[in-house]
Design a protein that fits this description.
There is one protein chain. 44% of the residues lie in helices and 23% in strands. It is of the alpha+beta class. A hairpin with a 2-residue loop joins strand 4 and strand 5. Helix 1 crosses helix 2. The longest helix is centred in the N-terminal third of the chain and has 24 residues. It is globular.
């Protein structure tokens, strides 16, 4: 029996604000729109050959609208094409984003650990912008607990 080898990308989509204040809180993105934007990016930048290499294995396994963190699975051989397509994304459904590949892993376990740690960092950043103390109890604590459980439930 042959095991399929995958690469896991942990990507943060940072919204580009043209106004004064950055927008905190949930975004309008979801896994389907990210997948469609990735598909279009691969086809635009690498053509049908690029999509043929990446298309069968590319899946968006997790997306958090609160922190704009996404876990993407792709086959091991064409993972650089998927990474480049993520990097070349400029907008999703007309809204400008800067994609930041936070972590690349060969196993789902390590990307789960990186996602949980990154969610904690993003929530700490939100609290710092709101000028709240680190031990302040708010809805972010509930979010961290629920997102940690959801991320740990992910299967290969």
């Amino acid at each position: 029996m042959v095991r399929f080898k995958n690469r896991w990308l942990l990507v943060e989509f940072i919204p580009v604000n043209l106004g004064d204040k950055p927008k905190l809180g949930p975004s309008n993105l979801d896994g389907k729109t990210i997948y469609a934007a990735l598909r279009q990016s691969v086809i635009t930048n690498f053509g049908d050959t690029g999509w043929g290499a990446v298309g069968l294995s590319l899946t968006v396994k997790y997306f958090s609208p609160m922190t704009n963190v996404c876990i993407i699975r792709v086959a091991r051989d064409p993972h650089k094409v998927a990474w480049a397509a993520v990097t070349l994304l400029t907008s999703i459904e007309g809204i400008k984003y800067i994609p930041n590949v936070v972590h690349l892993s060969g196993t789902i376990k390590h990307v789960q650990l990186a996602a949980i740690e990154h969610n904690r960092l993003v929530v700490a950043r939100y609290r710092a912008q709101a000028k709240l103390s680190a031990n302040y109890k708010d809805s972010y604590d509930n979010y961290l607990e629920s997102s940690e459980k959801e991320i740990e439930k992910l299967q290969d």
